[in-house]
# Entry
Amino acid sequence: MTQSYSLIRKEEPPPASVCLRLLSASLLGLALAGAAFAQRTETRITTLLPSSLACQEQDPSGTWKVVEQKSTLGVSDVFPGNKKSACYLEFSVASIPADGTITDAVLRLVQSGDQPNPSALVINVASIPRGDWTKSLADYEDNKKDFHLGRIRSSKTGKDAVDTWSGGSGSLLRSEADKKYIALLLSPAQSRSGRNYYPATGDTTNNASNQPRLILTYTVPRSSTLGSQDSQSDGWVAMRSPRPFMPDPNVPAQDNYAVRQAVDGTKISSYNAAMYGGLTYVVRTYANTQNNTSDWRLDAQDPFGNVVWTRPLPAALGQKARVIVNGSGRLTIVSQTRFIVYQLNTAGPPQQLKDIPAVSGTKSPAALLSAPDGSLYVIDETDLYALNPDLQMLWRTGIGTSAKARMTLSPDGQFVYATGIWPGDGGTKTTGMLAINAQTGKTPTKFLFPPETTTFHNPVVIKHPGGADYIYLAANSQDSGVLRTVKNVPSGVSGDRVAEISPVKEEKGLFSQPAPDATAPPQSGDLKSKKLYVVWKQAQSSPARLVSINGQSGAIEHRDTAPQLNVVDASALWSGGNLAMDTKGSVFFWENGTLYGYAAGASQLFARNIAGLPSNLELLFGSDGTLYAQDSNNGALSALIPSYQLPTPSDSISSPTHLRVDGNVNKDTTLSASGSVFLGNGFTVKQGATLTIKTKP
# Structure
């Protein structure tokens, strides 16, 4: 869109801080920009717990009666002193998108208590419609009928022994009254044996992982809109921009930045803002003067703090909340008292999906991770727990001091990698990483770190073409640290895989948060073409450098020739600072009041001191390409807008994102930006000059 102004009048300034914004056009552009991916699919994994469950047993006359005992899910054949029993499990699939296609399924059952007869048992698994299954049991058990999915062959017993059925999608999915569901019937073959399993009880303790579950793999078309930039495998929320940040060519040089407050740290009631579809989302409280209370609201605002829409929230939140949005637009609010979920829609109003009481025992959630399917991982004090998209508890395990804990989901969603510090006896501590099966939480594998470790960065996870997860872990103590590359080649069957961690490489020194480049991992071969960038200081007496890490070997590259940086010994980069990257691979970071930019080839683009901001900040990119500085202490968010002082030698100024200009237009000048153009206080256009402003997606 182009707007031209030929001003033939006396010189006079426009109103202060005029902003020419085309937010709707920007959002449309984001939608169009992602349209090329619409024909490609992505694979997701989700875990469902039964929405209903019932068992029946057959008396000697052949009559089926409901088993009132709810503490056991029992499947048994007839043998002396025992009746034939079968169980029905129903699973809601409301969380799977309408365009999702189920490609694989695993039913997982955990044995409980004493078994009625421990000899081998064969269990028929059938997919059935709702109704009285006892009238058609013979059909459901007939392996030549469409209902029959397969069999569980249970030849083992013991405490928490696991039995599974796995197979393709078959005729799993059923619908009734516009509601889709999966209903499975478990009945015994003639084997004169039986098994007792844990039922679904809504358990939220460490025993939650014993509940029966259906683990589904499904595909969906890739989203046609750009989402939250929360890349699970990158390890850092919003570290990537969907656009270049610097113009090409960079003439006149874009190296000065104006600060515009987007979120007031004194008014925000969430620890930070979440981002999706060109908007930011925050929880705020507003004074209610009528009854001298506060109203809680979820505000969606444009990149510069203007509220686009707002929704009321329960006053029962009562404390600061945490907010996260996944790449599918699922926004989750977690507080001590409520868990609330919205589905965001860039083309219309949001839809509230859930508003339930917080998980029993919730104290002070410190970190959230939202999986592509909508599952939620929460670090809360000394616990890490997982909820499926229906907010049912999947599992719970200890992780250590929450303020020090970090977590990342593997690219395929099968493992959670979490770092923590575990207290021991006599004031001792253990530090390290847990690799946890994301569907079950069972048998977490611990990989230890030096005991003097005080700070972890978020794990970065890249899928090797051979199938292994490569995990890059940076951790620091007061004056030293390590960056360890390890790999996970899991063992076990699908749905119950156990991590097998082995070391690849260890580098020593102080490290910032590693940031992988934007290139996709290769489809074959190895990861040597994949690079991770990190600020590294080999020793106290050594200069800090911006170096690359070889994705395959985990080794520091160009360690003696990489650019030297002016980084203070006590830099926040070592204790939580991060790198941010644009789509061209340029790297940006904040150090002690200075914003740095480096091209992908490690040549410096700029180093600009920016007044009015704290010395310690985190950088993140909005989903429209806006670069933000975030104060993690109070949630304040400031947009860093490329800024120019006119006149400049060039008569054309452009920005891939937003643009601010101050000064005087004394010749025909064109301002181009993909987002907003701001005209600063005192901006003037001289008589006879033409100012052309172009905004485009």
Summary: The longest strand covers residues 101-110. The chain has a mean pLDDT of 87. The longest helix spans residues 23-33.
